[in-house]
Design brief:
Elements (H helix, E strand, L loop, with lengths): L2 H10 L1 H19 L3 H18 L4 H28 L15 E6 L7 E4 L2 E7 L11 E8 L2 E6 L2 H7 L2
Parallel strand pairs: 3-5
Antiparallel strand pairs: 1-2, 1-4, 2-3, 4-5
């Protein structure tokens, strides 16, 4: 098949181009899980459907694909994300830190401090405002305020009893 034959085939079968793009975007969505690529895949699928009905009108296919992608990103995606985040049992990756053990890397007071939890350094503050946690002390995450971890000290004996 020469270059002219390939161009003629693409004009007659543009839906295949759009379909491969939609499948590729949908597959890539499995790596991100934030629904953006899935919305773009919906736009590509709409472009493919338009290509089936109007095979020679590339401008219309692109217009439909872009319009559907934008509408799904602006209208559908926020609604779906809200439903996922409000589903029973959903915990964001930050919320999974609650209950985790760590070590104070700097003095922790009611307003400032630093802790290492799960191999990462986080800003921290003490759960009890009257308490100061010294560097090197074992701590446990009680809660989260923005991106600051609220921690309290845990003595080594309690940690052994818990099996951490």
């Amino acid at each position: 098949m020469g270059e002219d034959g390939l161009i003629a085939w693409l004009r007659a079968n543009g839906w295949a181009f759009w379909g491969v793009g939609a499948l590729g975007l949908a597959a890539a969505e499995l790596l991100t899980l934030d629904l953006t690529l899935l919305m773009l895949a919906a736009g590509a699928a709409a472009g493919g459907a338009t290509a089936l009905v109007f095979p020679g009108l590339w401008w219309l296919q692109v217009l439909v694909a872009v319009t559907v992608a934008i509408l799904t990103l602006v209208v559908l995606r926020p609604t779906l994300l809200n439903k996922v985040r409000n589903a029973p049992g959903y915990r964001s990756s930050l919320e999974t830190l609650v209950g985790s053990s760590g070590v104070a890397t700097a003095a922790i007071t009611a307003s400032v401090g630093e802790v290492k939890v799960q191999g990462q350094i986080w800003d921290a503050r003490a759960f009890d405002p009257a308490m100061t946690v010294e560097p090197g002390d074992d701590v446990e995450v009680y809660g989260i305020d923005g991106i600051t971890l609220i921690v309290y000290p845990v003595d080594p004996i309690t940690r052994q009893l818990r099996g951490n």
